[in-house]
Design a protein that fits this description.
2 copies of one chain form a homodimer. Chain A is α/β, with parallel strands linked by helices. Helix content of chain A is about 45%, strand content about 15%. The first copy, chain A, has 2 domains: about 110 residues, Rossmann fold (3-Layer(aba) Sandwich); about 150 residues, 3-Layer(aba) Sandwich (Rossmann fold). The longest helix of chain A is centred in the last third of the chain and has 18 residues.
């Protein structure tokens, strides 16, 4: 287990290369002992560009993932890789072929179609702006417009979660909870199904807050990081969640992606 | 071309299902005339759960995409789909198998490993918090800490771009440009390679701003949306970009993903 294997993975795309990069991150997370370099080659729109990149793949003995929608480019990669004995994985064409077959519809073969500036795109952009505008309880009027209202005490990842969900098109507002601060009236006007209360383990919060103090160059033993204080905050939050009858998520061992998937799953099943 | 074909696509995952969902969006963007429903089934960790979901796939005659890391689940899906004549596409195992072969290392078969709360995760969370904190020129001290400083006049997608790049781990601060406002001193201390100036077409800005006024219930013909005003703003911004000698990107027909890929590509090639 001590030896670290190393690998070069190249993502080739006629657009951003995001889809294939995600596949690389997901697959390689299963190999904590393998060191890999992910080289992204976006916006390849000319055969000469592709040829240059393929030569690089040969030089690095790389594994190739690609997401070309022009079949000429796909053929060019496949024959090069076959000749040079390089592995190439086609990330989107298996599904494109299946959809073609099932619907008897031809794909448009349009590079960058995944990033079209359509209504859905602009809704997502608005949602991102919304999340920033209504972050941190800045304006409780946002609660009435939001798809989801996230509540939580300090250091429960309210902001990153709100933004992550905004990037998926949801309008999210969040409110930090403190036993001392009064709650905005708007909160009681929100449908409980749209409210999510975040909580965390005492121990975890204490560690996070102590580290935060240290990063500020302060003594970690502040009232902010004391167990008694944290217990009081958690209790206050959980009492409120019960009063609101909202969904409660303990984020202690969850990433924002996981918390987000739980929230969306619960919204869809209501 | 008038007939709309419809299709159900199911994403099955032991984790969030984000990787496969991205593949679905990318592939289906090639079929503007195909209406599809994407049903996401995240966090499948029991065989009985999987069995229930597979029965649903049969009922909907769905195409399945999956990202299971436990081979028993993969086998279960594949034999079910073979028997029932359902198409299933394995999104991450082709690459997992290739990495196993090339590095002679076994994958850990750990669901959710892609969402480990490791240093990289917390760096990304910090970057998201950074982007919100230093959005809209709120505190120019952020420029000195940022990996990338984004400049732009109103409605050039500074905020969504900053957040999108933060989600990839970059610390991004942004500053809105207005001919009237003075520039913070910190701007001149930033390495020009880390500054990006956004610009846009006059026509496009005028339309966006007029629509913004209409959405506010105001007369669209304001100084804010007048061509003369917009021309002056663009000129002011471009003069500044030339003075700073920074990279300039015209975002008029680019999504934030595309703009982001251009910025990262240019950073990597410096």
């Amino acid at each position: 287990m001590s030896k670290i294997h190393s690998l070069t993975i190249m993502v080739l795309s006629d657009s951003v290369g995001g889809t294939a990069s995600n596949v690389v991150h997901a697959a390689l997370s299963q190999f904590p002992n393998v060191e890999y370099e992910l080289k992204n080659f976006p916006f390849i729109r000319e055969q000469s560009q592709l040829q240059t990149v393929l030569e690089k793949a040969k030089k690095f003995n790389a594994v190739i993932l690609h997401t070309f929608v022009d079949t000429m480019f796909v053929d060019m990669i496949e024959s090069f890789c076959f000749e040079q004995d390089i592995t190439c994985i086609d990330v989107i064409n298996p599904l494109i072929k299946e959809v073609t077959a099932q619907t008897n519809t031809m794909p448009q073969h349009k590079p960058g179609a995944n990033h079209m500036l359509d209504d859905k795109y602009f809704d997502r952009i608005s949602a991102l702006e919304f999340a920033v505008k209504y972050d941190d309880g800045k304006d409780p009027k946002g609660f009435l417009e939001a798809d989801i209202v996230v509540l939580g005490i300090s250091r429960t990842s309210k902001t990153p979660l709100s933004i992550y969900m905004a990037n998926q098109g949801y309008k999210v507002a969040n409110l930090p909870l403190m036993p001392e601060s009064s709650l905005p009236d708007e909160l009681w006007q929100v449908d409980e199904k749209r409210i999510v209360g975040l909580t965390n383990e005492e121990e975890m919060l204490s560690n996070i807050r102590r580290e935060r103090m240290i990063s500020y160059g302060m003594n970690p033993e502040t009232p902010y990081s004391s167990m008694e204080r944290i217990r009081r905050e958690i209790q206050f939050a959980e009492d409120l969640y019960n009063k609101l009858n909202c969904k409660i998520i303990n984020v202690s061992s969850k990433s924002i992606e996981e918390t987000s998937a739980i929230i969306i799953d619960s919204l869809n099943n209501h």
